[in-house]
Amino acid sequence: MGQKDTITKRYMSKPEYFADAFNYYVFGGEQIIRPENLVEQDPVEIGIIPLELYDNEMVQKFRDVLKECVLMQDEKVAYLLLGIENQSDVHYAMPVRNMVYDALNYGKQVSDIARQHRLQGESGHSRAEYLSGFHKTDVLKPVITLTIFWNKKGWEGPRSLHEMFQNIEPQVLEYVDNYKLNLIVPKEIKDFDRFQSDLGKVMKYISVADQKAGYREASQDEKYRMLNRESAEVLNACIDAKITFDTEQEVVDMCKAVESFIQEGKAEGLAEGKAEGKAEGIAENQKNNVTGLLKQGILTIEQIAEGLEIPLDEVLKIKEEISSQN
Question: What contacts 4, CB < 8 A, 6 or more positions away?
């Protein structure tokens, strides 16, 4: 298991971040799932596929994190099984992968219930209950799997099973059950205030990791400035943020960390330019950065000039060049 996988798995195993992710995605930020109502579950999903009468094949899959949730709403109590899959890169078969996890879990629930009936000598009230081992009054726990994309890029993979097909007539597709991928992509988040823990701050920094001005602006915002150590470790692993802290330090001032990171990047760029004997190459890199930010249309020309520390008239000049090309 790579460093990114290890760190994000450990991070999302913590109840406060786990609950925050599902409250953001499922309940729009409303605090419905409580960390204290989460119970750790075995992440191993095992299923038995019957091949012939005495020849079965066992399938074993390993989830990243799986927890049981006691959900209390409107004086009703429900039990859910919630899983999280961490992805540092796009997985082009993610809908199928998560669908297999969920199917194996449902199969395991049915098997466990049937086994309990056998152990307790409950053969059922009908031939159908006896043969299936699953009684008419038995129920399953719903399973929700949420994928978190720990990458500053956008998700370019399929988001449903149907998207993985090609040239299938709608009339036929109507009868093919779909499986939707539940997915959090930092770059697509519009309202980071729906998060209640440092997970939201991590998502914010990842979303602007390739925008120097936006990255600096986030670090100067009081909402995102102070970050706990474990969240800083996630940023170091996922976007190579190079945040430094003392062994005893539990909270990081991101304003100072980001400035240090930006200055280090400038020094590296200058050194590379001098080593190659191409001072003009530095200006070309700046021009490419400005062009990219202008085309994104997120920042003003003033913000771009300030963030990249170049004259405003240079930004205007590049903007005019882009306009003339179009």
Answer: 86, 88, 150, 237, 238
pLDDT (0 to 100) of residue 270 = 44
- More confident: 282 or 3: 3
Residues 6+ apart with CB under 8 A from 60: 44, 45, 46, 47
Cα(90)–Cα(298) distance, integer angstroms: 24
In this prediction, residues 162-184 reach a mean pLDDT of 96
Angle at 235 between CA 233 and CA 239, to 5 degrees: 135
Count other C-beta atoms under 10 Å from residue 33's C-beta: 23
Residue 148: the pLDDT is: 98
> Which run of H or of E encompasses 246?
none
Q: What is the pTM of this model?
A: 0.77
| Alpha carbon distance 155, 92 (integer Å) | 10
Q: Is the pLDDT of residue 275 over 70?
A: no
pLDDT at 277 (0 to 100): 43
Neighbouring C-beta atoms of residue 132, cutoff 10 Å = 14
Cβ neighbours, 10 Å, residue 277: 8
Q: How far apart are CA 230 and CA 236, in angstroms?
A: 10
Which of 231, 292, 232 is closest to 260 using CA atoms?
A: 232
Q: Assign 125 to helix, strand or coil.
A: coil
57 Cβ contact partners less than 8 Å away, ≥ 6 residues apart:
48, 49, 51
Do the Cβ atoms of 69 and 38 come closer than 8 Å? Answer: yes
